[in-house]
Amino acid sequence: MFKRMKVGVGVLGCVLALGIGLSFAQGADDREAMIDKELSETSGLNMEKIRQIPSSEKLSGVKGMLDGIRSRRKGVQDKYDELKQGADASAQRIDCVNKKLLVLKSLTLGAEGSATKMSTALKPPAGETVDEQAAANYYSLVVIADTRSKQEAQNANLCTGGESLVSNTEGSKSTVTIDESVPADYEPVAEGGRLSVEDLFGEVVNFTNIPNLTPLS
Question: What average pLDDT does this structure show over 81-94?
Answer without folding.
Answer: 84
